[in-house]
Amino acid sequence: MGSSHELARNGHKDVSLQELRWEQYHSPRNLLLALVGEVGELSEIFQWKGEVARGLPDWTSDDKEHLEEELSDVLLYLIQLADVCGLDLGQAALTKIVKNARKYPVAEQTAASTN
Ligand SMILES: Nc1ccn([C@H]2C[C@H](O)[C@@H](COP(=O)(O)OP(=O)(O)OP(=O)(O)O)O2)c(=O)n1
């Protein structure tokens, strides 16, 4: 078994090789469809459960790990979709947060606008 440095190096190599192999399939449309598919898998975790308490106090660690994986899949496809569209998603999200704050000023907030 190699050192943790070797493992980390090989892990990075695998990630880079995989990215190269997948590049040909990563058109905007394909990534969008993959993203929607993963949102479906994420929804299945909550399906039929009824309301779920914040912090998921009643969930097992396996359930939480599964949720982490599906959330990560959604995030990774979202980031890749923005990337192949040539967009800076980080900057776009910051701009959108500022826009939201202007659209919904705190003083004028009503129950309806916070839903
Ligand atoms: N062409 C591909 C294939 C996969 N992935 C990445 C993004 C996701 O993080 C993960 C998705 O892999 P799977 O399609 O195997 O989906 P799951 O991990 O959800 O597996 P399963 O559907 O068996 O639960 O791999 C990718 O970027 N491009």
Give the total of domains: 1
What is the averaged pLDDT score?
Answer: 89
How much of the polypeptide forms β-strand, as a percent range?
under 5%
- Radius of gyration from CA coordinates: 19 Å
> How many distinct helices?
5
Oligomeric composition of the shown chains: single chain
Q: Main β-sheet, in a few words?
A: none
Residue windows where pLDDT falls under 50 for at least 5 positions:
none
Second CATH tier, the architecture: Orthogonal Bundle
Find the count of extended strands (DSSP E, 2+ residues).
0
Overall 3D form? extended
Helix content: over 70%
EC number: 3.6.1.12
Subunit structure: Homotetramer.
InterPro entries: DCTPP
Organism: Pyrus ussuriensis x Pyrus communis
Features:
dCTP pyrophosphatase 1, binds 2'-deoxycytidine-5'-triphosphate, magnesium, DCTPP, Helix Hairpins, mainly alpha, magnesium ion binding
Description of the molecule:
- This protein is mostly helical and 115 residues long.
- It has a single domain (28-114), classed as Orthogonal Bundle (Helix Hairpins).
- The chain has five helices and no strands.
- Helix 2 (28-46) runs antiparallel to helix 3.
- The mean pLDDT is 89.
- Residues 22, 25, 41, 73, 76-77 line the site of 2'-deoxycytidine-5'-triphosphate.
- 2'-deoxycytidine-5'-triphosphate binds at residues 22, 25, 41, 73, 76-77.
- It is an enzyme of class 3 (hydrolase).
- Keywords: Cytoplasm, Hydrolase, Magnesium, Metal-binding.
- Its cofactor is Mg(2+).
